[in-house]
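In keeping with the milestone schedule agreed at the kick-off meeting, the structural modelling team has produced records for the first pair of proteins. Each record is given below as a sequence line and a structure-token line. The laboratory manager (R.T.) confirmed that both were archived under the project's standard naming scheme.
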Amino acid sequence: MGELLSRILPVFAVIAVGAVAGRFERFGERTAAVLNDLVYWVALPALIFVSVAGADLSAGVPASALLASAAVVVVAYALGWAAARVVRRPPREAHAVGLVASWGNVGYLGIPLTVAVLGPATAFAASLTSTLHTALAISVFLVAVTLDGRGRGEEGAVALPALLARRVLGNPVVVGIVAGVAVALLGVRLPPPVATTIGLLGDLAAPGGLFALGILLRGAVGSLRGSRAPWGPIGAAVAIKLLVMPALALGAAVLFGVPAPWGAVLVVMAALPDAATVFVLTAQYRAWYRESTAVVVITTVLSLVTLPLVVLVLP
């Protein structure tokens, strides 16, 4: 519990600083947009690259762990999408709900928390599971919003395969993942100045995204207050992320016969609250991004109760 609090309280502190700063004209929505671009195009790819490039792939990876992780993410995404469509939210918005429901704080919170709870031997499994969750959730979202926007504006003049390749393979987060996997597979050791530079850029991701979220939080709460329409998908995303997804992970670990410690790592990763990165991505596509700020805050608060309970039932 102490480790969990030590990780979560600074998250709220940075959001709070951003919210206070957002009351001043100098730190308005324009500042949040610049910060969002910095995190999305530079800091987040660097952070993911460092995490993936440092993984030791020589130990091998159980196929059952990969299948179970993929199944959990896809099912959670589909449930979030369906919950939004049931209340007749637009398809693009529904896909944003699916992303928020299926992609937790697997990097900043997930890896260190897993190592603290399950031991240092789980570091590799945590890093790989984090990478898989990130790559799959983002790729599904990008493909979905690309298909949804097909035929409108510039996208209608581009062949679908080329458009999908540009959206997915050209996404900065995906580029960071692919580059990191290449470095890990080849066993390349980056020169210390290069590694340090990339690490410094990656360190901007968490505070930058949280600060931008804080700036927009006041406006998001104001726009949601008194409106009943958005709260159904918000509640569904929170429930799926904190309750349904870890239950799916527990079932998948048993169904696919995921060996230790991969099964326990999968359950912990599935139970994590949302990170500011979901807000960063949805804001880039102007899809359900204000509501996603509420989900980030709500899931982070409630995870103080749900995460310890999940740890008690780990396989």
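The second protein of the pair:
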Amino acid sequence: MKPGEKEDNFGKVPEVPAHLRAGGSATAKVEPTEERLVAAGVDPASLAASQGGVAGLPSEDDIIFTNPDDFEGSEAAIQGLFGVARKDWQESHTVAKNLSLVESKPLLIFFTDTPSPQSGGSPAAARLESELIARSDFADWAGENFVRLKLDFNVKDRKSADTARQSIALAKEKYLLSLKKRYKVGGFPALIVVATDGSVVQHVRGYRSGNSEFTWGLLRTALETSKARQKKFEEKLQKKGYRRWTGKNDLKILARLAAYKDGNLILIAPNGVRYETKESNLSAEDRLWIEEQKEKRG
């Protein structure tokens, strides 16, 4: 290496912890950060802000290290943990934020309070759900263009005689209220569109029966604004080495190549999550890009 040159990690793979080598488990045991904090009565968003971090992103302790001797098993574990087994609506703010960032889709948050016999709830939220949210055409469109998060403030077991259940319910309610405050939601329903750069693009407050098409129009406009912001966001990340990768299962992630050796890759997403995979699992375009990088490096 010549004086002044930086070491190139292309062709070098970081050492893997001993417990994750042959014979180890597919992934290190990870408890979701958000659930841990909620159980302890801590607001993850406030904690991240106080530590100078970004709300909803994992700490170093929550990064997954996969087993290089079992790539397929490791990938399946990663995909299950990070919600790739798709839900119509996510329930975890942390998971939804991660998916939004990695998949480069804006986040659509639905704040609601579902009416029930035990709670009056929000009739307006129920009308929005029946007139728009539950429609198949809207569901198809929203599923294709957004990562969706539903925050229902009708929390069960708040008055449960079971103290353990009640404690969990109250912790969940406290956390939901922190998100309500964070996104400046005054009442129900509310629809929030958040671009991948973290900026709030649209805040639809309330709902009047018969206004489904008007509300959908607001979300369409917000989507176009989000795409424009996404483009600028990705341009900044590309300068830092990030690009879009596509797997055989058509899963797309935004990540940078941290290391490569003998057909094995380590990719790191903008939120710090590490992925290990094989070159053979990638698209033809990705494999061609890797060959071009090899040629550039001789």
